[in-house]
């Protein structure tokens, strides 16, 4: 018997049952809440930990919930376990809502065929590529691609959509300032699946396709981004950690510039040492080169041992770049080819190492 996927409601129930102060920061357009838990002591400066900006990267969400339940630190700490509740609630659920149905599209083995049939019969094709389409359904946009095709996952689909918008101004104009929900397309990944989770992107006025970890410097970002940006400016974190999943079966840490003997360098090294002590290796840049889009790869430099300098990480357009004006900020990436328990364990080790090092100097 296949184990049912964890629902958004189950995540929220665990957060609320942890006995920590929890507040609703705001609501996604689907009216699903984005919540923040307060843990730790009163020591300053505060720490901010977030997860689930890409809702199909589920291990960060589960790690964040575990941190809310049991992590101890003297520092005032804020944890947002799920930045895209609509995506985590699922592609199928969002499609059912757009169709004004009371139940989701079936989750059986025929789900792909059922979803495609539903989109083609009830939706309108807005644009398409060689093996994907974007449909308008009930005022919302849904991308579709079969999970059985080579190069699965939402990230390659996002890149294909980005390339189409850059190459065709008509398509870019048609999608401008619209959000598109992509399916996860990872049927073999535990707690993820092909269509059970979603990945939210938006097409900007210049034709770029960006996700919820971008546009923090935009005057009118997506609501989910604005909610987190407001929290950052309120908390003014001395340390920020954003939990993600990436390529392969190892871990890597995305950083801006690491000056020798700086607090950023010490925290990065402390985080890496903690992950290594837990038995997990760092990923080299050349190991992910085949999967990384050229527009990102050109901005990256391998600093060794799983630490990757990414020029965009220093820009205020990203979550970590925006946080960096208040203190060190890092993006923790865990290879989704690991089993779920290992992915969660890597995140927990990374957080412990970073917070322990931060507390030594701050």
Keywords:
362 residues, alpha/beta, Aminopeptidase, GMP Synthetase, Chain A, domain 3, 2 domains, 9-stranded mixed beta sheet, 6-stranded mixed beta sheet, 15 strands
Summarize the structure.
The chain is an alpha/beta fold. Helix content is 36%, strand content 24%.
Shape: globular
What portion of residues is helical? 25-40%
The beta-strand count equals 15
CATH architecture of the largest domain: 3-Layer(aba) Sandwich
Largest sheet: 9 strands, mixed
Order of strands, main sheet, comes to 1-2-4-3-11-15-12-14-13
Count of DSSP H/I helices: 13
Task: Name the helix and strand elements from N-terminus to C-terminus, one letter apiece.
Answer: HEEEHEHHHEEEHHEEEHEEHHHEEHEH
């Amino acid at each position: 018997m296949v184990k049912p996927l964890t629902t958004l409601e189950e995540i929220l129930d665990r957060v609320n049952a942890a006995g920590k102060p929890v507040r609703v920061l705001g609501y996604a357009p689907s009216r699903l809440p984005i919540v923040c838990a307060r843990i730790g002591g009163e020591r300053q400066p505060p720490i901010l930990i977030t997860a689930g900006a890409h809702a199909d990267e589920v291990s960060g969400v589960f790690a964040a919930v575990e941190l809310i339940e049991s992590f101890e630190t003297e520092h005032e700490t804020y944890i947002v376990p799920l930045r895209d509740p609509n995506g985590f609630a699922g592609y199928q659920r969002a499609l059912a809502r757009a169709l004004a149905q009371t139940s989701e599209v079936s989750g059986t083995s025929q789900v792909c065929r059922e979803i495609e049939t539903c989109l083609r019969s009830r939706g309108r094709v807005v644009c398409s590529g060689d093996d994907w389409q974007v449909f308008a359904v009930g005022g919302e946009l849904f991308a579709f691609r079969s999970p059985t095709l080579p190069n699965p996952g939402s990230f390659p689909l996002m890149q294909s959509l980005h390339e189409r918008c850059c190459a065709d101004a008509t398509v870019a104009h048609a999608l401008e300032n619209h959000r598109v929900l992509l399916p996860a397309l990872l049927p073999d990944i535990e707690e993820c699946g092909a269509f059970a989770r979603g990945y939210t992107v938006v097409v900007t006025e210049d034709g770029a396709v960006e996700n919820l970890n971008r546009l923090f410097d935009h005057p009118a970002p997506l609501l989910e981004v604005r909610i987190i940006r407001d929290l950052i400016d309120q908390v003014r974190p001395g340390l920020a950690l954003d939990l993600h999943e990436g390529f392969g079966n190892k871990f890597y840490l995305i950083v801006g510039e690491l000056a020798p003997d700086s607090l950023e360098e010490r925290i990065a090294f402390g985080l890496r040492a903690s992950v290594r002590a837990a038995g997990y290796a760092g990923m080299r840049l050349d190991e992910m080169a085949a999967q990384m889009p050229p527009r990102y790869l050109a901005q990256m430099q391998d600093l060794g041992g799983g630490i990757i300098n990414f020029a965009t990480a220093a820009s205020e357009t990203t979550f970590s770049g925006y946080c960096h004006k208040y203190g060190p900020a890092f993006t923790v990436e865990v290879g989704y080819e690991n089993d779920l328990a290992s992915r969660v364990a890597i995140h927990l080790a990374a957080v412990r190492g970073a917070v322990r090092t931060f507390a030594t100097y701050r």
